[in-house]
Specification:
CATH superfamily of the largest domain: Pleckstrin-homology domain (PH domain)/Phosphotyrosine-binding domain (PTB)
CATH architecture of the largest domain: Roll
Helix content: 25-40%
Oligomer: single chain
CATH class of the largest domain: Mainly Beta
Length: 451
């Protein structure tokens, strides 16, 4: 009996009970039996269909509990298990390959890597090919994007530590999917660190130019003229300094989608940046309204997905079974009024990863940490979880995942919901179990004067 593991709504790998049991035993050996959740017991006889389903639910619960424990979920044992399983499922042998990574200006960086290299290794290979100094590597990340017909691109997700970038991109069998290198911090004061170095400056400059050309950063005629003249003089630093003053600088812009705020079915363009989600909403009367939701006023959020039932053996269903993804957050509208706001978008995962990293960055700042420290690696090459993990208190584990929802993982797990489910029925959107979402610990610092 093989189980599909979906991570962030995407089929990540297929695993057998015995493989999961092996992972469980290894985790117990490393962390002790009192830390690791209980594992569904072995059965001597063949399982009945009802028992198979019961075991699947237990395994799903187990995987979520492990993923959401900051120590276990961040462990090399767990992440390398997921990477290995991803590679085996996609049947990609370990060998040397050339991977193409895009820069914002369309330039392609070709790196020679192993198919089994994890995200961190690939990022370092790209950095070393570009001569980006080690202490700046942590300011950048690799993103999976989909090229659009107009030459732009749409964000799918930030590549995570439990995946192999080469396998992730090739297993999609679609040349529109690419890997791009972009800065991965939100506070533009960090630009100063990056601009100290020639390569950092060039990368930041290319990204800023590209974001202006895509219309992601708003520019009026006069600003456009000033930017043009700085570009002609190749005054990159001054160009970036001027861009920093413009609207939506440092924001990620998402594809048009649907929201239920201020009323159901409104079309919206969401941008993430400056510790907020910015909404440009088109109301039913065609009027455009703009407003922002501050991350610090979101009490919690969750990502949910529903997948249509696919019959027949795995692989036979057409790749077009569209997963419907939603990001919902509970927002402090006024002193004692909380309201849920929902965004229905294929990019819901990417949105949640953005919220996550904004909160992480806020928490690191609050605890006096620095972004440099946040990304420093240990000498043995294992990635230490960022300092934000210490700053973020862990919410309780999920009890039982509500069958109609992909549960939202807690903050410290980078919002990665792991599910062993090929599908999930989405029932009425209001049925949400109490354990379905987790708190945002940047929210606790809010005082009345912030409102």
């Amino acid at each position: 009996q093989a189980y599909n593991i979906h991570v962030n709504g995407v089929l990540h790998c297929r695993v057998r009970y015995s493989q999961l049991l092996g992972l469980h035993e290894q985790l117990r050996k490393e962390y002790g039996a009192n830390v690791v959740p209980a594992f569904p017991p072995k059965k001597i006889f063949t399982l009945t269909p009802a028992e198979v389903e019961q075991r699947r639910e237990q395994l799903e619960k187990y995987m979520q509990a492990v993923r959401q424990d900051p120590m276990l979920g961040g462990s090399e044992t767990f992440n390398s298990f997921l990477r290995k399983a991803q590679q085996e499922t996609q049947q990609i042998p370990t060998e040397e390959v050339v991977l193409e990574v895009l820069l914002s200006n369309g330039q392609k960086v070709k790196v020679t890597i192993l198919t089994s290299d994890q995200t961190e290794d690939v990022l370092e290979a790209v950095a070393s090919k570009l001569d980006l100094p080690d202490d700046l590597v942590g300011y950048f990340s690799l993103f999976l994007v989909r090229e659009t017909t107009d030459g732009g691109f749409s964000f799918v997700r930030k590549l995570q530590e439990f995946e192999l970038p080469y396998v992730s991109v090739t297993s999609l069998h679609n040349p529109e999917f690419r890997i791009i290198l972009r800065k991965s911090y939100w506070d533009s004061s960090y630009d100063d660190d990056v601009m100290e170095h020639r390569v950092g400056l060039n990368l930041l400059y290319a990204q800023t130019v590209s974001d202006i050309e895509h219309g992601w950063i708003l520019v009026n005629k006069e600003q456009h003229r000033q930017l043009k003249s700085l570009q002609e003089k190749v005054s990159k630093k001054e160009f970036i300094r001027l861009a920093q003053t413009l609207k939506y600088y440092g924001y990620l812009k998402f594809d048009p989608c649907i929201t239920d705020f201020p009323e159901k079915g409104c079309h919206v363009v969401v941008s993430a940046g400056n510790n907020e989600l910015n909404f440009q909403v088109r109301l039913p009367n065609e009027q455009i309204k703009e407003g922002s939701f501050k991350v610090t006023r979101m009490r919690c959020w969750r990502v949910t997905s529903s997948v249509p039932m696919s019959n027949g053996p795995a692989g036979s269903s057409p790749g077009k079974s569209e997963v419907k993804l939603e990001l919902a957050f509970e927002y402090l509208m006024s002193k004692d009024r909380l309201q849920w706001v929902t965004i229905t978008s294929p990019q819901a995962i990417m949105l949640s990863i953005c919220l996550q990293s904004m909160v992480d960055e806020l928490m690191v700042k609050k605890s006096g940490g620095s972004i440099r420290k946040m990304f420093r690696r240990r000498a043995n090459g294992a990635l230490r979880r960022s300092d934000s993990q210490q700053a973020v208190k862990s919410p309780p584990l999920l009890d039982s995942p509500d069958a109609s929802r992909e549960p939202m993982a807690k903050l410290s797990s980078k919002l990665t919901s792991v599910s062993l489910r090929g599908m999930s029925h989405s029932s009425s959107n209001n049925e949400v179990g109490a354990n379905d979402f987790h708190g945002n610990y940047a929210f606790e610092g809010i005082g009345d004067e912030d409102l």
